[in-house]
Amino acid sequence: MSSMYEDYKPEWKQKGIRSPGRIGSIRLFFRYLTLLFKAQMQYKTSFWLLSAGQFLVPFTAFAGVYFLFERFGTIQGWTFYEVALCFAVIHMSFAISECLARGFDSFSGFVVQGEFDRVLVRPRGTIVQVLGSKFEFTRFGRLMQSVMVLVLAISGGAVEWSLLKILTLLLMIVSGICVFAGIFMLAATICFWTVQGLEFVNIFTDGGREMAQYPLGIYPKWVLRFFTFVIPFGAVNYYPLLYILDRTEGSAFPYVLLPLAGIAFLIPSLLVWRMGVRHYHSTGS
Amino acid sequence: MNRSLTNRWYAYYAVFRLRMVNGMQYRAAALAGMATQFFWGLITIMVFVAFYTHSGANVPMQIEQLVAYIWLQQALLALVVLWIRDNELFQLITSGNIAYELCRPIDIYGFWFAKLLAARLSAVLLRCIPVTILSFLLPSPYRMTLPPNGINALLFGVSLLLAALLVIAISMLIYISVFITLSPTGSVLVFGVLGEFLAGMIIPLPLMPEWLQSVLMLLPFRWTADFPFRLYSGHIGVQEGLIGIGIQIVWIAALVGIGKYCMWRVMRKTVVQGG
């Protein structure tokens, strides 16, 4: 039965062309982006209102943090500016990741409506297509807010900056993006089995963000362990932060390189995703 | 008694019951939501415990009262937050199907009010009991406590019901605003996020600075969440509680009045363009 399909070759393949007008995945992704951007800019008022709303979400969270510090002074020896730095890094990672991996975040729609069938018949990878399916430009409002918090934290003078520390900070942000993207991807993979999206995944995305906006050291030990070894938020946001704030002893390198663990989190996520794709049964709608 | 009046209340009740039964169907969603809220409550309490450990005795709220506040927030989330929305109503407005609603021999404000109230009550009934039971079983700093006395418990019950009515009265204004803007996402997001903060859902009102607290006392939002939660733990006494319940009733009357008037205004101007 299967040989029948293997024998089939479309016309362009018979002529020995690898694929008609094939462009690289990165370029394809940017084409998706320009399309989506043009589409979203058709509703300009809605766009700006949504961006303003997205700005407000972490803004009220940050106002809460500020008021708590105004009342209590410190949280277990951490000052306001130190926590602000922590807050800025995790919210920035979250905002960028939510922009990029929004397609995975709302993936259940793909499965419910049977759209994933269309993804599978196209001669491109599934990941680039899902990534390119949605991109929330309004999340820039969220990003702007965390940039402002970062500027505030840096101007607070809690850190003596060096080149290595700046590099560590950048690594932390990139690594945070990867961890959140990995979680979005794992959550999307679950949809292959459950069809509907599951709200409890929010525990790891929204909950993880909420939790890691404070240094993880303030929580009970088991929480720190779970969020270091199972989902590596500690490697993204806590241990490197200790180095940036000069709270470490001995060699700096383990702390600087630890964010790589967050990037490595993508590997199992990708493997699980491929497993899910192989398991996919269309809902038929 | 006037026959048409009893009929109208019966219609509201029928809508209410239909929505309740409908909302009770989504058990898996409720289960997932509960897990999220339970976890969320735990993180929030951990942060407050960390703030409290080295702060000495000078705190505006005992940790037990704070913990009860957080658990009530989480258990009653579906009842008190403004960002829950009924997309069906938005679609009615933006698609023009509102015309069908206008054909019904029933006042549209009351009809939608009953619909929204039922949706929230069914969501909260499914979710609040397990979260509350779990919160009573937790070890010491995280454990939920009972109200200090029967009167506070009773007042809490009354104020919570009024809070639900007040939340619906506020959200009706959001729905009505969509008649003018025709795009729900922006206004709901801004209303929802600000309302959440102003109701004390991000940090409890007593932990905010004095100036902000006195501003919030003048707005309707804190009467929807902060007030009943503090009545529960006895942070607000009986006398203040009774006055507060009076204020809640005044707010409900005022906002329902404004809502009905605005609804009447936009309805007069609504043009349904075929389709």
List keywords for this structure.
heterodimer, A: mainly alpha, B: mainly alpha, 12 helices
Structural overview:
The complex is a heterodimer of chains A (285) and B (275). With 285 residues, chain A is an all-alpha fold. Chain A is built from 17 helices and no strands. The two termini of chain A are 25 Å apart. The model of chain A has no long low-confidence stretch (mean pLDDT 84). The chains are: A mainly alpha (285), B mainly alpha (275).
Give the distance, in angstroms, between the N- and C-terminal Cα atoms of chain B.
42 Å
- Main structural class of chain A: mainly alpha
Outline type of chain B: globular
Assembly of the depicted chains: heterodimer
Percent helix of chain B: over 70%
Which pair of chains forms the biggest interface, and how many residues does each contribute? A-B, 38 and 34 residues
Q: Count up the helices of chain A.
A: 17
Q: Low-confidence parts of chain A, pLDDT < 50 over ≥5 residues?
A: none
DSSP summary: helix tally of chain B: 12
| Structural class category of chain B | mainly alpha
Brief sketch in words of this structure:
The complex is a heterodimer of chains A (285) and B (275). Chain A is an all-alpha fold and 285 residues long.
Present the secondary structure layout:
The complex is a heterodimer of chains A (285) and B (275).
Chain A: H1 2-7, H2 11-14, H3 25-40, H4 44-72, H5 80-100, H6 102-105, H7 108-112, H8 115-121, H9 126-133, H10 140-155, H11 163-194, H12 206-212, H13 221-230, H14 233-244, H15 253-257, H16 259-264, H17 266-279
Helix pairs in contact in A: 3-9, 4-5, 4-10, 5-10, 5-11, 11-14, 11-17
Chain B: H1 3-23, H2 27-53, H3 63-75, H4 77-80, H5 87-95, H6 98-103, H7 108-137, H8 150-181, H9 184-198, H10 210-217, H11 226-233, H12 238-269
Helix pairs in contact in B: 1-7, 2-3, 2-7, 3-7, 3-11, 7-8, 8-9, 8-11, 8-12
